[in-house]
Design goal:
This protein has about 290 residues and is mainly alpha-helical. The chain has one domain. It has 9 helices and 5 strands, in the order αααβββαααααββα. Keywords: Plasmid.
């Protein structure tokens, strides 16, 4: 649905209203518009001049997206360093504590006797075998840390892409009529209006993100889906594309017999690399689109 570009531009001007006057004067000069004392640009009648303002705001949002990549890399490096330290500490003799509790034994003659039973603990993990408890703790600390960081960096990436989507809507005089926009919406706009059909999406990471956030890292029924004879749902199709793609790209992801998705020390930096690739390709596509408008 096409709507007036001046209406679309109002979203961009929300940020404009909050800018200091000195910054507004600079933007007005760069975009060739007059600055109005009431805190908005003197909107001209031509489509190109309106899009010029949207182009400037898109540059700001894109720079924020590019800058966020370095933040993601910092988080990943810190997380992997923390995991390495935690695993080293877990191998120390004092990392696993032991204790005893009275265990009851019921005899055939009705007697009940007690005897001491030894248990072991490491962090939040308990059990009767010391090596098993230590191994479980090391597994949990690595997986939960990586899961937490992945959810954080994906959320940051999606936030930046949705910001860019709003400005892409302005530039193309289109509208994404959804309350909660996603990375998938950004990719649709990129393909439909900005010549981004050849750009690979990051849907495989979106699927893994949803599994981590909503299914405790378990890809339900994944092992049986490939053998399913009946018609697959759209989610099932996405799942069957996502995990094989991630594995094929040597991203550090595996899936065990219980359908748990496991991440090794390659995965987080792989995800950041995918986000960086996507931002750069989006930048190139939009810049090419803008050059055709001038």
């Amino acid at each position: 649905m096409k709507i007036d570009c001046r209406i679309l531009l109002s979203r961009s001007l929300k940020s404009w209203i909050l800018m200091p006057k000195k910054v507004k004067l600079t933007v007005a000069k760069l975009t060739g518009n007059k600055y109005c004392s009431h805190g908005s640009l003197a909107i001209t009648e031509t489509k190109k001049e309106i899009q010029g303002v949207a182009k400037f705001f898109f540059s700001l949002k894109l720079q924020e997206a590019i800058s966020s990549i370095s933040v993601m890399k910092m988080l990943v490096e810190q997380a992997e360093a923390n995991i390495s330290r935690a695993l080293i500490d877990a191998d120390k003799p004092e990392a696993v504590e032991s204790g005893e509790f009275p265990e009851e034994q019921h005899h055939e003659d009705g007697r009940i006797t007690t005897f001491p039973c030894t248990y072991y603990s490491c962090g939040s993990c308990f059990g009767y075998d010391e090596d098993e408890v230590r191994s479980k703790y090391k597994h949990l600390i690595a997986q939960l840390t990586r899961r937490s960081v992945f959810l954080t960096i994906f959320g940051l990436f999606e936030h930046r892409m949705v910001d860019c989507l709003e400005l892409m809507d302005d530039l193309s005089c289109k509208t994404t009529d959804k309350t909660r926009k996603t990375v998938e919406d950004c990719h649709k706009r990129l393909k439909r209006n900005f010549g981004g059909k050849s750009i690979k999406d990051v849907d495989h990471l979106a699927v893994i993100r949803n599994i981590m956030a909503h299914s405790d890292g378990v890809a339900e029924d994944y092992k049986t889906l490939s053998c399913k004879k009946t018609k697959k749902t759209e989610y099932e199709k996405r799942l069957l594309r996502a995990i094989p793609r991630t594995m094929a790209e040597n991203a550090g992801v595996s899936i065990n017999m219980f359908n748990d998705i496991l991440m090794d020390d390659r995965f987080l930096m792989y995800a950041v690399g995918e986000f960086e690739r996507y931002v750069n390709e989006l930048n190139t596509a939009v810049r090419t689109y803008q050059s055709r408008l001038t």
